[in-house]
Amino acid sequence: MFYLCSIGSNLDPALHVSQVVAELLARFGRLHLSSVIQTKPVGMHSRHDFLNCLFVVQSDLSPVQLKAEFVTMELAHGRDRSNPLCKVADRPLDIDILACGERDDFAEAGVDAYLGDLLAEMYQGGSVDSGKVTLGLPGSKVFAKQRIGQAPIHLCQQDEALLPGNGHPGPPSRHAAIRHP
């Protein structure tokens, strides 16, 4: 199953977004990642802007299982989900599943307006003209030099172990292949 997901962060967002992209890549082996944009908060009052992006991951996990993994990642990054107002509070990390399907084809998926340009850029050759942010991927020597955020990108960790739910065995190597569309 393919999942279209979003990442948002407005507390130390550059750190949390870059770290979680690396964590997702390590967990699932492959990601189709959108540009990263800076946005004003939507549906909440905050003085902290968000960094937002979309990603597609393929997994054998059910939507409930995948969301549970995302919640675990959010908690590890310091999100307080016990707060009844956590949906409208500042957060270090928020990962949501927006759509799922048998193919990586989410061009017609319904997303919030502030994510619409990112989706069009990923699937329809659209462009995001403002607010793009460049981030580095932490971790390995390869990722230390890799920059994300300025355009959609396919990330593939070639040292993919076949973990439950990732469905992608890869060649035995310690490097990541970074493919731009």
From TrEMBL:
EC supergroup of this enzyme: transferase
Pathway annotation: Cofactor biosynthesis; tetrahydrofolate biosynthesis; 2-amino-4-hydroxy-6-hydroxymethyl-7,8-dihydropteridine diphosphate from 7,8-dihydroneopterin triphosphate: step 4/4
One annotated GO biological process: tetrahydrofolate biosynthetic process
Gene Ontology terms, MF aspect: 2-amino-4-hydroxy-6-hydroxymethyldihydropteridine diphosphokinase activity; ATP binding; kinase activity
Region of interest (Disordered), ranges: 162-181
EC assignment: 2.7.6.3
Domain 7,8-dihydro-6-hydroxymethylpterin-pyrophosphokinase span(s) in chain numbering: 5-101
Keywords linked to the UniProt accession: ATP-binding, Folate biosynthesis, Kinase, Nucleotide-binding, Transferase
Keyword Transferase applies: yes
Transmembrane segments: none
Cross-referenced Pfam families: HPPK (PF01288)
Record carries keyword Kinase: yes
Role of this protein: Catalyzes the transfer of pyrophosphate from adenosine triphosphate (ATP) to 6-hydroxymethyl-7,8-dihydropterin, an enzymatic step in folate biosynthesis pathway.
NCBIfam families noted in UniProt: folK
Similarity remark: Belongs to the HPPK family.
The protein, known as: 2-amino-4-hydroxy-6-hydroxymethyldihydropteridine pyrophosphokinase
Species classification: Bacteria, Pseudomonadati, Pseudomonadota, Gammaproteobacteria, Aeromonadales
